[in-house]
What we know:
The structure holds four protein chains of four kinds. Chain B contains six helices and no strands. Chain B is mainly alpha-helical. Mean pLDDT of chain B is 81; it is low at 123-127. The termini of chain D are far apart.
Amino acid sequence: xxxxxxxxxxxxxxxxxxxxxxxxxxxxxxxxxxxxxxxxxxxxxxxxxxxxxxxxxxxxxxxxxxxxxxxxxxxxxxxxxxxxxxxxxxxxxxxxxxxxxxxxxxxxxxxxxxxxxxxxxxxxxxxxxxxxxxxxxxxxxxxxxxxxxxxxxxxxxxxxxxxxxxxxxxxxxxxxxxxxxxxxxxxxxxxxxxxxxxxxxxxxxxxxxxxxxxxxxxxxxxxxxxxxxxxxxxxxxxxxxxxxxxxxxxxxxxxxxxxxxxxxxxxxxxxxxxxxxxxxxxxxxxxxxxxxxxxxxxxxxxxxxxxxxxxxxxxxxxxxxxxxxxxxxxxxxxxxxxxxxxxxxxxxxxxxxxxxxxxxxxxxxxxxxxxxxxxxxxxxxxxxxxxxxxxxxxxxxxxxxxxxxxxxxxxxxxxxxxxxxxxxxxxxxxxxxxxxxxxxxxxxxxxxxxxxxxxxxxxxxxxxxxxxxxxxxxxxxxxxxxxxxxxxxxxxxxxxxxxxxxxxxxxxxxxxxxxxxxxxxxxxxxxxxxxxxxxxxxxxxxxxxxxxxxxxxxxxxxxxxxxxxxxxxxxxxxxxxxxxxxxxxxxxxxxxxxxxxxxxxxxxxxxxxxxxxxxxxxxxxxxxxxxxxxxxxxxxxxxxxxxxxxxxxxxxxxxxxxx
Amino acid sequence: xxxxxxxxxxxxxxxxxxxxxxxxxxxxxxxxxxxxxxxxxxxxxxxxxxxxxxxxxxxxxxxxxxxxxxxxxxxxxxxxxxxxxxxxxxxxxxxxxxxxxxxxxxxxxxxxxxxxxxxxxxxxxxxxxxxxxxxxxxxxxxxxxxxxxxxxxxxxxxxxxxxxxxx
Amino acid sequence: xxxxxxxxxxxxxxxxxxxxxxxxxxxxxxxxxxxxxxxxxxxxxxxxxxxxxxxxxxxxxxxxxxxxxxxxxxxxxxxxxxxxxxxxxxxxxxxxxxxx
Amino acid sequence: xxxxxxxxxxxxxxxxxxxxxxxxxxxxxxxxxxxxxxxxxxxxxxxxxxxxxxxxxxxxxxxxxxxxxxxxxxxxxxxxxxxxxxxxxxxxxxxxxxxxxxxxxxxxxxxxxxxxxxxxxxxxxxxxxxxxxxxxxxxxxxxxxxxxxxxxxxxxxxxxxxxxxxxxxxxxxxxxxxxxxxxxxxxxxxxxxxxxxxxxxxxxxxxxxxxxxxxxxxxxxxxxxxxxxxxxxxxxxxxxxxxxxxxxxxxxxxxxxxxxxxxxxxxxxxxxxxxxxxxxxxxxxxxxxxxxxxxxxxxxxxxxxxxxxxxxxxxxxxxxxxxxxxxxxxxxxxxxxxxxxxxxxxxxxxxxxxxxxxxxxxxxxxxxxxxxxxxxxxxxxxxxxxxxxxxxxxxxxxxxxxxxxx
Lengths: 659, 167, 100, 406
């Protein structure tokens, strides 16, 4: 089994592509850059496929497949972090999503970025991102995972600020980077705590140690090691996956090119948080508090972002907020212990949200870079393929059966309903689903229906090239059939997805409870309710934006404060600015700069310098330049050495005289 | 008073006188000549101790190459009698006592060391050339290579130093 | 049958004379020669020890010293030639500017 | 008296040997000058010396007398000590180097004592020779410097530079031989070439060491400041080079020193590359042992006949006397009763023969070759000779590693 023994090939190929393009690509024409970038990604996709095939055909006695150790990276005392890659069911899913969607988006980018400057740079970053993401999902210990974690953060920063001449873009990049650092700080603390507790950061050993029943279950409100570690890890997750309170960077990240938004800020990177939580579920299930916190935060984020999404006018921002809220769904799933459901939603969401972004990119591309939905409309006839694919994606995200979104979201809501005290979560989740379908259809209607609101003389609408449409179609198909693997679960059959992930995500609570006859009726009912809410949202959207297009403005006027609050995203940015940034600025100006730097550090340095000068002035005179005097000094030195050796035997080893 | 001892004393006297002459003479050529005398005397002592190879090398390299270089340079620069300037007070004052002190220390160290208690050196006990060569090319091969490199560097340095700037 | 200490004392005396020359000669070439003298004294001690202890490595070391002396002579004489060229003097006390 | 002799026999023997050798060498030197002049003259189709005595045979004596009797001025402003030291050094070193040469294989038995041919038989023989050669630079250099005059100074500078440069290749080119012999001792080197008696001439070192031989010979010629490397005393440029300011016997010292070193070099060439005292014929050809008598007999007869033609005392008496002596020796070597003498003579005979050949080559070169230019000399020495000799060392070492010393 060649690839399984050489897992390193999969991440290394994109790195190579990135290096080649980044170092040499500057002078090359786009076609060569394409060949390199697509070649690298496509090859690694094929390798991933092969690896998955080999892994699935692995005889059961070989399972679980042991981590592949390639070289020791850090070795310090008892601490050991190797470059170890592993592959298991969870990794398989992530691998497929990352390489597959990544490859499609690469193809799409060749069309979308065709006319941009810095083409090679873009693809170099993109490949680099692929590399780090693959490292992240294949890492066999927290340290290597953190490498990928930071690497994708870096790439996201680079790509958000791709148009670095645009101030807003570079600011957005910095914002993303800084906010992520806050989360990473927690993540690192969590790692430290874990290492201190288990003396290792390798997944297999660590989880084996953690699943030892000797570690008791930490009840609600009890802050043991697990709770704190999990909360810290989750802090990192909130940063990376844009959950409350650290979600603020994601909407601004839309400054980057659309394929980036699709790949990094919808499909792959932002789901890393979910992946980490799922990966370390064994730690989480130990702690009631952590689970509850995850669930509540996820739920709150989902609802919160959805409400903001209601009123946004920038098409990509709407999608961004919907991403945030969908991520919230995933965390909700994890929080209620349905990790497989969370991962499932992660996968389906990757499909349709990537599709949405790409389609939105296609729309923007079509009408010449305009992103404001108020300046669109009536595009459905002009760009048919884009419209159809985007509509499919909307159906999927809204949770209309039998598309992917329906199954995953239903599974989440169901398992949220299952756990005790989960009903409020379920209720909010349901409401969010309603809102989701509303603002998604609002987006559709504003964009594709009604009268064209753009200047038809200047803007000449044109369908995108097939290099862009191809991925759209592929993703559309995926977002249709992507969820069917879980379909049997709905008709009471086994949940194939859960059972596939079962070897990894065996958690004492949650998903197992599903397969019970009693629960089955309930699931049907809940599904119907969910679909009903989705349809309701769709209806409202239709009524508001097709029947009386004037209505929304009146509503906005009638409840101005609410509208403004939503429009300004609850003034969260302003709040942060006031509470955190201003004080920080003040401290750094008045304390760090004026006092510490100027007074203390510079003072010391200058003092040393002047001291050296004065000493030199006095000592200078010994340097007469007369060789004979120097000779005398040499002799004196020799005398001193000999005298020491002679009178002070203890010093002989020091002087080097062994006897 | 065995013949060896006699030879030793003769050669030692020769060496010391040569060294003294090196100091007394005021013309570098004469100093060089007296230094050559010292070296030849030392070579004789080596022979007396039975290490012929070192003796030969001493004469060939020191006497035949290094000192020739010195003489050559003196002739090239046409160096005259050295002038007795006394700019350095320190050397004038502290020189002699320091040298005496150094000598005293060394003598005391020798007197105290248990080596001198040993019987001593009878000629030709060992150190036939073969042994030296095996040691040089087996145990000390890396230092040996290093010295070859050192010589290369020295040659380059000398060339760079002595060549006139092409102007 | 010569006691080792004789050789050692002789080498010590030579070394001391070398030091004296080192301090008292003004001609840079002579100073150089005095350094060679000291090296020779050390060599003598080396050979004496190696013969007294019946170990050849002392003599090997002497060979190394000679090689180093040769290299040093090459470079040093180059410097001396340069000095004579730039200063028209070989007296070290006339060359104390610490700069060219 | 006898007891005294017995007591210090060794010392006395040594002294005698030294005196003898000195005498021989000096005489040979004297007649070498005669030989050289004759040969060169004939090469230039002249008669050469032929006034003083038959064939000018007494010319060397006349020259010696001239050297001794001439006035010996000391130029003004010379550095006295060095000025006197230089020729002494040159001569002393040149003569010392002869002492290491062995002249015959087995010792002479006289009064129950073994007297080896050759004075000092050191086991670092060749190294000692090189040491002495190395020191012999000083004679020339100091002479040039001390005589406080331009041309000598230039000559001295040149010679010291030249000697130091060529000493390297001289030493390197011998290493091959030393590797083959595995010893510094000259006797061992010769015996190493006698390893295959049946091969005769083909057992000598020249064949494996042809490269080394050429390097050695060239370097040696340069060491001895002979044509074509006689730049230190290039008459046409430097008047007479380093010994311009020297007159009468001091000059003679340099002269003798030069010729002595010629002899030494010839000895070295013979010993190290041409099998020393080994006969060029396979050991089985015993009849070749009569070669000495075969040569001596007719030569002696010719000398007698030649002497008769002169009417001078010298011609009438001395030459026939020498002739008869030679003839007698030739006959004596031939008679079976004195076989052991013949056997004993073989070694020295071949050795001297070869040495003679080399001396002739020296003279021959002087008669034919032009002089190098200084820069040519240096570049030749450093850029050609040294690399070649080093390459020779490497090749030899490799060969020995592959196929062993023999």
